[in-house]
Write a structure and sequence with these properties.
By secondary structure, this protein is mainly beta. It contains three helices and 23 strands. Strands 15, 16, 17, 18, 19, 20, 21, 22 and 23 form a nine-stranded antiparallel β-sheet that branches. The radius of gyration is 31 Å and the shape is elongated.
Length: 403
Amino acid sequence: MKNYKSLLYISILSFAMLFLSCEEEERGPLVSDNTIPEVITEVMVENLPGGAKIAYKVPATDDILLVEATYVRNGELITARSSVYKNFVVIEGLKETSPQEVTLSVVDRSANRSQAVNVTINPQTAPIDILFETLEMVEDFGGVRLLYDNKDDIQVEFLLYTIDANGTATYNQSAFVNNSSRSYHTYRTFAPTPQNFGVVAIDRWDNITTIKKATVTPLEEVMLDIYEFDDLKLSTDEPDAFSWFMPNLWNGSIDGSGFHTDQTTPGAIVPPYTTPYHMFTFDLGVLAKISRIKFWQRQGTWIFSHGNPRHFEIWGRPDFPTDDGASFDGWTLLVANGEVIKPSGGPIGSNSAEDTASAALGEEFDASLSAPPVRYIRFVQIQNWTDGKFIHIMEFNFWGQLQ
């Protein structure tokens, strides 16, 4: 038995040593050298907006690790590295279009560095300057609407300034953009009087544009009184269920009960829709040109889940529909292709702190500026978060200009 245990111990020890040996071999050579690697060759430059792509041939040496590029951006020395498995490096974030020198060096696994190869690039107009040329400020309800075309999908911050009679610009508020899914942002909280505004764009490399100025008169905007709202039942609307009644949508609370439709009914087909949907209608009690609409989804564990709206549309009309809701004739789309976005993008049932905070703030959507004044609102649920038809919502708010 003692011999057996000894043999077993020796076998285990041998296996462990073999494993450690393999692990060390995978990590790289245990010795280093002082051999300077050869330089890159066959360099080709492709100038790009705000930078360049520099292609090259890497030396045919086994221990080459990477190619390192250094250049100056906004007065700071920047280092970009590219794996030996790629034959190019990308230079980005440059605002100036004047010639720029980039230094390229080969680095091996022993940290030896080759002689430098200097390359001159001529960056094209930076994406932030391309974006800046598209900026336009126009009137909007409660403020100024900044129009833009972010076709390059860059990350940018728009800083709004108010400008006094002496020409002094004072920072007011910001908007952050990182894709081309939207084409405008509205800065609010301004009185309906002529005002001087300025906007500046800054990208993720701290490149800053000049200021674009405009004189804009914001449109008057008020929050509609929820105590004027009243429920309404058209023939094709879904009735309430589970004792969650429609008046809960304007009780001033996002806790407790809201409005809920039945989970088993298919809904109604109302032209121009060709598929049955759950929908409901209510009366604002006043005629108003709607500027924006906000609703709150069911909170707690239900956010971005179950019957909370994901895809929807909102319609409005000034007068009571004579066909009792059999069609959308006479109705105007206030919010077309509405979609609730989950900030984290995570799976249903898994909510981040950002998701929870976003749901608590509510889902806000701008109404079409071209829409006429309306009094009656019709909400159409296209799809909830479980790909179903039924709805549960907690609260509705509206803003606009009373007529």
